[in-house]
């Protein structure tokens, strides 16, 4: 990105007449030609540059071989228009007369036949590539009238026989330069878990979409708020299972703090309020990486049980009274500030007076008590001194003794009404009703947003209310230490970084060929059981194409999140050996049939919502690698190609490269794509 946050080629470049005149006299290396970004079309440019650098396909169009094979009547095709638009683009790019070209006509054709690519939204280069290969195939299909072909199961026959039959059936309906160049053959094996029936079929493929090994762990940063007011909040970095529950987060935090998981409550804090209070059984996937997660040490529960002697956990907000800024004074000029609290209140202290004392204790690290000089008169001073004895210190463990006999205790009969609703226990929604002595703040029951009096929300009357601590500006300035309130300490674990080890491309291919069980949404109908089954499925490679496209599945989608995997995949530039993955009996006398050299890479930089596509490609004539970034093209070295951005890989089989080197293979004499030095 540039310093202003934009991508290098994110804006439309207008090609004026002067540039066109310059291009007429320009003479450069054929194929070294940029593509103008029409507005979020870098995905299309990347796919086109990769495909343009496939030697045999480009020679096919440059030599006008496509003119004899255009299929205008194929109902599955695009009346030859996609093939003709692509041919024009290739001819311009390989003429050597242009530094860059504007693929406007091609973009319009794609949008016309594939409405998902209409407009100027960002898309996936692999999805466009899939559409383009299919469109070119149907436009250039040599089969003018497709016959009906019945798919046959192996039924115990030898694999060689079934595979040959499947390929012949495929060619009876699909025969084009795309099939010749890009199509291979899978072996698919399904096994019924009930009857053990085995189904073997052979299916063609145009590219391999291989998964990346995914870590089953994730790192979450949380703030732990201890009950002891002398201790500052602690920042922790926890390693938790991706598919775990909130309880797993509490267990991981317990190992750092020594506090039992049963004494923890997890909350998502947003804009000075509780956005969500999590239950222990909720999935961790509902927590996003950007969420501010606070874990509170508590000694009770929010959903108090009648007759229980457990402490009651009360959500508490901090508000400051400010002058109303508009004519609508519905919010009473109260603004939330600071971090909310979950405060454990003993039942015998569940009064306004008791709650005030508990809060003074919990806030004592950053809220100072008024001294005797602050009192209004002697009586208030005596009352305050008397109450000071009731404020628990650290040694009392938080238990509070109530000196006033009229306040409700557990045996006073108040619990028979509703022990956990403040409305019943406290009798009023606001405190203090009268100023008996100088209080630092007032208390108010509010809704979960903390923005209005709870009495205005009838639907919340029977729910546990939230408490707001309301400060006058002068009192807050005098007694509330904002710097201390925001202070926290970092646990040693914060320095931990979960390293993402690089993976080899071969590991991704192994994962692709691993046995998997079908998902509930995609069951298999077993012809033996006569019902849908969650069968086991295994894919094997039987026959490989001349050009092998490998799509790295970097984008992961779940119910709660979408993420991009930025794992570094190590892939070879030369000699990618597939002999261990191909199960067809091999021709040992010709090992080149299973070895591949890299010729192009489509890169994706950025995340899910924004990003940029570029291309590395090897020129078929010079053998030099270049970096294509929309209309900008620059030479690069081989050691620059491998990166975390690699998304789609194009490999050429070595026997094909050798064939193209021979004079009969093409009109020119292209160098080996593995060669990186100019002639």
UniProtKB/TrEMBL annotation:
CDD domains: Peptidase_C19R. Transmembrane segments: none annotated. Residues 373-389 have a biased composition (Acidic residues). GO terms for biological process: protein deubiquitination; proteolysis. InterPro entries: Papain-like_cys_pep_sf, Peptidase_C19_UCH, Ub_carboxyl-term_hydrolase, USP, USP_C, USP_CS. It is found in: Cytoplasm; Nucleus. It catalyses: Thiol-dependent hydrolysis of ester, thioester, amide, peptide and isopeptide bonds formed by the C-terminal Gly of ubiquitin (a 76-residue protein attached to proteins as an intracellular targeting signal). One of its GO terms (molecular function) is cysteine-type deubiquitinase activity. PANTHER family: UBIQUITIN CARBOXYL-TERMINAL HYDROLASE, UBIQUITIN CARBOXYL-TERMINAL HYDROLASE 11. This is Ubiquitin carboxyl-terminal hydrolase. It comes from Macaca fascicularis.
């Amino acid at each position: 990105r540039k310093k202003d946050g934009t991508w290098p080629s994110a804006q439309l470049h207008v090609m004026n007449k002067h540039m066109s005149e310059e291009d007429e006299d320009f003479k450069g290396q054929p194929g070294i030609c940029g593509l103008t970004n029409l507005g979020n079309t870098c995905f299309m440019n990347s796919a086109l540059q990769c495909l343009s650098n496939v030697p045999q396909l480009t020679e096919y169009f440059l030599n006008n071989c496509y003119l004899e094979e255009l299929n205008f009547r194929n109902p599955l095709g695009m009346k030859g228009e996609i093939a003709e638009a692509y041919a024009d683009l290739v001819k311009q790019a390989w003429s050597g007369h242009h530094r860059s070209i504007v693929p406007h006509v091609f973009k319009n054709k794609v949008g016309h036949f594939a409405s998902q690519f209409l407009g100027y939204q960002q898309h996936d280069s692999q999805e466009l590539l899939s559409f383009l290969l299919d469109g070119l195939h149907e436009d250039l299909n040599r089969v003018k009238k497709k016959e009906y072909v019945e798919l046959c199961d192996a039924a115990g026959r030898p694999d060689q026989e079934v595979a040959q039959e499947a390929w012949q059936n495929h060619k009876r309906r699909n025969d084009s330069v795309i099939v010749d160049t890009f199509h291979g053959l899978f072996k698919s094996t399904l096994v019924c878990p009930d009857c053990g029936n085995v189904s073997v079929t052979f299916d063609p493929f145009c590219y391999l979409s291989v998964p990346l090994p995914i870590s089953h762990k994730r790192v979450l940063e949380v703030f732990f708020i201890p009950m002891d007011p002398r201790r500052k909040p602690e920042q922790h970095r926890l390693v938790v299972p991706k598919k775990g529950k909130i309880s797993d987060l509490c267990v991981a935090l317990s190992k750092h703090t020594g506090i039992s998981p049963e004494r923890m409550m997890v909350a998502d804090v947003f804009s000075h309020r509780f956005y969500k209070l999590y239950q222990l059984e909720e999935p961790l996937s509902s927590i996003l990486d950007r969420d501010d997660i606070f874990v509170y040490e508590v000694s009770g529960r929010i959903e108090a049980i009648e007759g229980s002697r457990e402490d009651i956990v009360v959500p508490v907000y901090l508000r400051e009274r400010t002058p109303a800024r508009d004519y609508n004074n519905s919010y009473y000029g109260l603004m939330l500030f600071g971090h909310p609290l979950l405060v454990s209140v003993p039942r015998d202290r569940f009064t306004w007076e008791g709650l005030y004392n508990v809060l003074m204790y919990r806030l004592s690290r950053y809220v100072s008590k008024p001294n005797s000089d602050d009192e209004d008169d002697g009586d208030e001073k005596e009352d305050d001194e008397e109450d000071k004895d009731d404020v628990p210190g650290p040694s009392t463990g938080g238990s509070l003794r109530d000196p006033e006999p009229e306040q409700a205790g557990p045996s006073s009969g108040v619990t028979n009404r509703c022990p956990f609703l403040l409305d019943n226990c406290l009798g009023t929604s606001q405190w203090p009703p009268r100023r008996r002595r100088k209080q630092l703040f007032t208390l108010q029951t509010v809704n979960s947003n903390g923005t209005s009096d709870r009495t205005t929300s009838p639907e919340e009357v029977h729910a546990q209310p939230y408490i707001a601590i309301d400060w006058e500006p002068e009192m807050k300035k005098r007694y509330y230490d904002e710097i201390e309130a925001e202070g926290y300490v970092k646990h040693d674990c914060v320095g931990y970084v979960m390293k993402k080890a690089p993976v080899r491309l071969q590991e991704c291919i192994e994962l692709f060929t691993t046995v998997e069980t079908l998902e509930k949404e995609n069951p298999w109908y077993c012809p033996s059981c006569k019902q849908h089954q969650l069968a086991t499925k295994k894919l094997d490679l039987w026959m490989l194409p001349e050009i092998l496209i490998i799509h790295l599945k970097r984008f992961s989608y779940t119910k709660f999140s979408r993420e991009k995997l930025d794992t570094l995949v190590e892939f070879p530039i030369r000699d990618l050996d597939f002999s261990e993955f191909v199960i067809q009996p091999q021709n040992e006398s010709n090992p080149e049939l299973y070895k591949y050299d890299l010729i192009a890479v489509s890169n994706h930089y950025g995340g899910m919502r924004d990003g940029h596509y570029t291309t590395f490609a090897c020129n078929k004539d010079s053998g030099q690698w270049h970096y294509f970034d929309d209309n900008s093209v620059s030479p690069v070295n081989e050691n620059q190609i491998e990166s975390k951005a690699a998304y789609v890989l194009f490999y050429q089989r070595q026997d094909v490269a050798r064939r193209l080197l021979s004079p009969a293979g093409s009109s020119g004499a292209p160098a080996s794509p593995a060669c990186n030095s100019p002639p």
